[in-house]
Design goal:
The chain is an alpha+beta fold. The chain contains one helix and eleven strands.
Length: 152
């Protein structure tokens, strides 16, 4: 008799798990609105499908970049540097990426972008919690900055 109740209990738990998985699959993840902003305006929240574009003069170089932010807080930053003639710039050492949360004293995470080809660099990281974050791109004495409002 006890074995029968154990079997019924296992069946109920199994059906509950299947129900949660089916409901999650039907509803799917929902993206809540958030924005990434720069000093010159507001840009829609970056996603892999719609990255934020960065275009700035950074010292002697022109910086064209993209940042894509996932709902998990993971981001990928792609940076392209060109010189005054439009040719890929020889940046040595690679740019530093400084990531800091604006409203909380969580310190600054410093990483170095990885070169992928002449003038092209990539960096990836993780925003640990929801809120406003600032990513600084540093090459020598020159610095560009982008702020991202992250929410899940």
């Amino acid at each position: 008799m006890a074995a029968r109740w154990v079997g019924v209990g296992i069946l109920i738990v199994f059906l509950a798990i299947v129900g949660v998985l089916v409901a999650g699959g039907i509803m799917g993840p929902r993206e809540r609105p958030s924005v990434a902003s720069r000093s010159d305006g507001v840009t829609p929240r970056p996603t892999s499908a719609r990255p934020v574009i960065i275009r700035e003069q950074l010292g002697l170089w022109r910086l064209d970049g993209e940042i894509a932010l996932a709902e998990t807080g993971e981001y990928q930053l792609t940076l392209r540097f060109t010189d005054q003639t439009g040719q890929p710039a020889a940046i040595t050492p690679p740019p530093l990426i400084q990531t800091a949360m604006v409203d909380h004293d969580m310190g600054i995470v410093v990483s170095r972008a990885e070169p992928t080809s002449p003038g092209l660099f990539r960096a990836a990281g993780m925003l640990a919690m929801e809120g406003r974050w600032r990513l600084g791109i540093v090459v020598g004495d020159a610095r560009a900055e982008i702020a991202v409002d992250f929410s899940r």
